[in-house]
Amino acid sequence: MTVRDVLADPTGPRRSTLAVVPTPAAVGAEVLDVDLRSIDDAIFAEVYRAWLDHSVLLFRDQQLSDADLIAFSRRFGALDLAPIQENGRRFVEGHPEIYVVSNVIENGVAIGSLGAGEAVWHTDMSYLPDPPKASALYALEVPRAGGDTSFCTMYGAWDALPDDLRARALTLRVKHDGTYNSGGYVRAGVTPTDDPRAAPGTFHPLVCVHPETSRRHLYLGRRRNAWLEGLPLDESNALLDRIWEAATADALTWRHQWRPGDLVLWDNRCVMHRRDAFNPGSRRIMHRTQIKG
Ligand code: SIN
Questions:
Q1: Residues with CB under 6 A from ligand 1
Q2: Is the torsion defined by CA of 76, 80, 81, 82 positive or negative?
Q3: C-alpha angle with apex 204: 201 to 207, nearest 5 degrees?
Q4: CA gap 178, 201 in Å, rounded
Q5: CA 176, CA 293: separation in Å to the nearest integer?
Q6: CA angle, 64 as apex, 60 and 68 as ends, to 5°?
Q7: What confidence score (pLDDT) does residue 186 get?
């Protein structure tokens, strides 16, 4: 399926005010009947508010060029450059802000990152000192089955944490690993190590206060090669395992099944995401922007 297939039967007129329908899950909402190429400042203010309220927004049936995706993303703030992919390529030619997530191989070269396997729970680029505050992922081609993306609320994760873990978590910083991406691939230019103390990465507080909503949330980043600063590895791993189990419970997550033309925008500060594997023989092409914090 391509964007063109889905849009062959266009829907009716677009709304002039925003209709936001929360998902039945703990996080996320769908915004109905909006064309992201042409929203005015008043509607954009509503989109921004809805994004802060729901952490993840889904916009169906979009027809975005790469320039449109960049223009919409820039309304939230300046853009980061795409992270370096495992194969050393990192962006759409002429658009260094657009990271390609794809399993497609052209002329023997992968056009994007992450292949067709599972991408484990993570926060985009949290191995950096200033990770993006938001990511926008736009579906160009998707398989008929598989490749769903799930989101997990880190506000809910904080709320769900047992009291003893909360007290402990408030005192800790966690190292977010920069060795592996969420597909398990080693990042370009990195010598792999599975000792989190030696691995490249950045320490962030395990519990943060969201700068715009003032709500407290966990900030876990990714599990592989994580390390709680100053703790012996065994103790760090045991504590992290307990925290991760509570933080990624099904009750805190929403799973999105993609259609071409879907744009999903998430608050990278207070949600994590993961992706299901899909049939490597099918094509999945997604373009992603990252908005600076
Ligand atoms: C990502 O981690 O940004 C990619 C998620 C996906 O492929 O659905």
A1: 101, 114, 119, 124, 137, 149, 182, 273, 275, 286, 288
A2: negative
A3: 145
A4: 5
A5: 17
A6: 125
A7: 87
